[in-house]
Specification:
single chain, alpha+beta, three-stranded antiparallel β-sheet, 31% strand
Length: 246
């Protein structure tokens, strides 16, 4: 026959088990935070944006380059400037999730958002971001103020909200209304670098003759200035991009 002491211990053990079970209920019943929606890039800069999630304590963001994760950050804001983490050429995307406070028993972390659209960083722009330098967009490029070297670029008023596009033939710059430039210079709003699009609308690389002057567009399509070595030969290009003739 079991002693009263044993029965008492058993009862206390059962009560403790019930209390532990009751304590676990709030955690399992915690509300999962909403999934972040509407991820997008700033129009001109590699700054990630997303919609606010109610009751989120902070956000965790994954940055990807060409489908490989390259950075992870946490922030309490609904945007993040990735310039210092996008110093290599490639197509960048990001996704984000809302995080609950670690001590919270009412909320759980949200699910990951969909991937954002691509933000392409050219080799030239990557170098600018890497060095932390700024590009002079007033005194450089075709038709630069004060050079008196060339006529104004052959660019008419163009729509806003564009993005780089690519297919098997090459690169072009497409605007939100579906239009694109042909036989025209273009200054990328994200980098300030100059590009030229041919009659077919595709970005030109290599030597270019325009208004009886010669320019050189590197492998990334950006117009070069200053001292350059091309195919083993040394050249000098004025701030306007024009080849200086010896």
């Amino acid at each position: 026959m079991r002693s009263r002491s044993y029965i008492k211990k058993l009862a206390l053990f059962m009560i403790a088990g019930v209390m532990m079970l009751g304590a676990a209920v709030p955690a399992s019943a915690a509300t999962r935070l909403d999934t972040v929606s509407d991820t997008y890039w700033d129009e001109d800069d590699p700054i990630a944006h997303w919609d606010e999630v109610e009751d989120a304590y902070q956000y965790e963001v994954y940055l990807y380059r060409d489908d490989s994760r390259t950075a992870t950050i946490k922030t309490k804001k609904t945007s993040y400037n990735f310039k210092s983490k996008m110093t290599t050429e490639g197509d960048y995307t990001f996704r984000v999730r809302a995080l609950a406070k670690s001590s919270s028993s009412s909320y759980r972390d949200g699910y990951w958002s969909d991937y954002s659209d691509n933000f392409y960083v050219s080799a030239s722009y990557a170098e600018v971001l890497k060095s932390g330098g700024k590009i002079d967009t007033v005194n450089s490029g075709p038709g630069a103020l004060g050079t008196g070297a060339v006529a104004e670029p052959d660019i008419s008023v163009v729509p806003s909200g564009g993005a780089w596009q690519r297919n098997d033939h090459g690169w072009w710059y497409s605007y939100a209304d579906g239009s694109w430039l042909t036989a025209a210079w273009f200054q990328d709003p994200a980098s300030g670098l100059w590009y030229y699009f041919g009659d077919d609308g595709y970005m030109v690389t290599g030597w270019l003759t325009w208004n009886d002057n010669q320019y050189y567009l590197n492998d990334s399509g950006a117009m070069v200035t200053g001292e350059q070595t091309i195919s083993g030969a040394a050249y000098y290009f004025e701030p306007s991009g024009i080849l200086e003739m010896k």
